[in-house]
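Supplementary notes for students who missed Thursday's class. We covered one full example, reproduced here. Read the sequence, then the structure, then the short commentary at the end.
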Amino acid sequence: MTQNNCKNRRMNRLWELKIFSGNANAKLTEDICKALNMETSASKVEQFSDGETNVKILESVRGNDCYIIQPTCEPTNQNIMELLIMMDALKRASASRITAVIPYFGYARADRKTQPRVPITAKLVANLIAKAGADRVMAIDLHAGQIQGFFDIPADHLQARPVLLDYLKKLNLKDIAVVSPDVGGVERARKFAARLDASLAIIDKRRPKPNQAQVLHIIGDVKDKNCIIVDDIVDTAGTIKIVSENLKKAGAKKIYAVCSHGVLSGKGVENINNSELEELVITDTLPVDRKLGKKVKTLSVAKILAEAIIRNHRGDSISEMFM
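Structure (token representation):
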């Protein structure tokens, strides 16, 4: 065997791809590995009786390209600590590169100071992830685009839009109006509208306090339209419920909502079931082994994440996936 062949074999071994899973969404990790035709790498993530997290990597990762799939959803603080401790374990086991794949990035809603003496938790969590040993981060539909710049390491901002659009096109709706539930989501809604050849409407609303919304005006024509509300996160679903009621009063026909992240905490499921929605479409960035009701449709982003991982592993462009 020549010296070059020996070197090539050694480099291939050193940069072997390995995917690990935290406890937050093991099913999504399984689906990603299935799409990549590989097995989930072995690890043990447990809790001590006092609540502390105990992690052990059960196979060699020396010189490997390692990915941890872990959305930072409820229980948010526990899942963040699992992610941080897993990265620390991989770093101390001499992994060559560690990528934190965070389908749902928690604490993202506090991305700026909206009043005096409040934290910017999105930046704080970004700092913790980088400090714990991540070389790169992948996330789907961050609450605000500027969060990508909060990381002092490369961050890939992936999008669930392709799977959501594929589903919407199969509904064969006519006379569509894409609705942004607030001014901040206009860019996101405009991209959906362009691909669905639809008009655009904007909800002018204000929040008297967290998780409460008050609709002031509907900017745009929704009368006799099939409306699609587009947002990144649906939490208690109070906003979507109120927006759907106002759209119906304004003469909308059928009303759908698409949201990348179906948090659905508190009365979220109840609000959806009691709303004017025909259907809420979410993805599996959060665990889907919950009773979400008949109005909730869940799509998988496993293939998007699998494609992003293999492209990053090979050094190929990720942005080309969303052109």
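Commentary. Residues 3-159+303-322 form a domain with the Rossmann fold fold (CATH 3.40.50.2020). The first strand starts at residue 17 and ends at 21. If anything here is unclear, bring it to office hours.
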